[in-house]
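subagent[fold] <- orchestrator: predict structure for attached chain, return C-alpha cells only, no commentary.
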Amino acid sequence: MDPAYVGRGPGKDSFSQQPSSHGYGEAPAPPPMAAPPQMMYYPPPMGYNPGPAAHMPHQGYPPGYTPYPNEYAQANVYHYPAGPYFRNPPPAYHRSGGGKAFIRGFIMCLCILFTAFFVATLVMALALHPQLPLYTVNSLSVLNFNTTSTLAGDWNASFMIQNINDKLTGEFSGFKADLLHKNDVVAVSFVPDFVLDKKQVKHVDVKPSSTGTSFPEWNLGDLGKEQATGSITFTMRISSMVAFKSSSMSTRGSLVLALCDGLKVVFQNNTGTGALENGGSPILCQLYM
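subagent[fold] -> orchestrator:
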C-alpha cells in the first residue's frame, strides 16, 4: 500500500463518476445526490388554517415533477367569508287574536246577562205565580132569528171575567167575542180594552151581530133544520191579549183563547126568539194559549 494514502480517507474526487484505477474488483461509486430545486412559498393569509393535511408533503413523486392536482386539497383552499345575505322580510300578518278575544268576552258577557235576566224573571214568575183569568158565560139570547134567505138575528150575551191573581194586575186588549156554529161564525162582537185589578171581577155585556159575517149559504139549511127541532147548540169563542203586571215585574202579552161549548139556545114555539138553557148556572169556559 502506498504510504501516501495511509491515514487519509477517500478524497473528494473519489465520488466522481470516473472509474477507479485501483482494480477491477471494485464497484463504481453511486452518483452524487442532486439538491432539490429551491421553491418559493408565500405565507398564507391571516386567518387561514390549512389543517394538518396541507403541511404533509406530496409523496410518491420524484423531485422536479409537478404532481397531479389534488381535488381534496383544492377544496380546502381559503374562501373569503361571504357578505351578509339579505332577503325580503316575511309578510306581516295582521293577527286578530285580540279582536277575537274581545268578541268572545263580549258574547260571554251577553250570555251571562241573558241567563241572569232569565233566572231572575223565572224566580219572580214563580214567586208571583201568575194565573190565567176565569171566563164564564152567564146568558145568551136572540130575537128575530132567521135562516130563510140570509142569516139574521139580534143577539145578546153576557159573560164574566175574573182576575184570580192576588199580586198581579191584568191588562186585556184586542177583546173579541164570536158566536160559532160548527166552526162557522154566526155573529161577532168587540169589547174595548180594560184592566182588571187584583181579584177583580168584570161583567161584560155584548151584542153580537151577524152583519158582515161569512156564514156559508149551504149551511143555512142545516141551521134551519136544527132550529125546527126546537133548539140550536152554539159555541162562544172569546179571544184577547192578556198581560200581567206588578210593581216589580210585568209579563209579555199573550193571546188567551176561551172556548165556551154547549150553549144550547131553546126557541119558543118555533119562533125566532130563543134563550140559553143553563138552569141559571154560569157555563165555565176552557182556556187555551
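orchestrator: received. Logging for downstream: Confidence is low (pLDDT under 50) at residues 1-25. Residues 134-288 form a domain with the Immunoglobulin-like fold (CATH 2.60.40).
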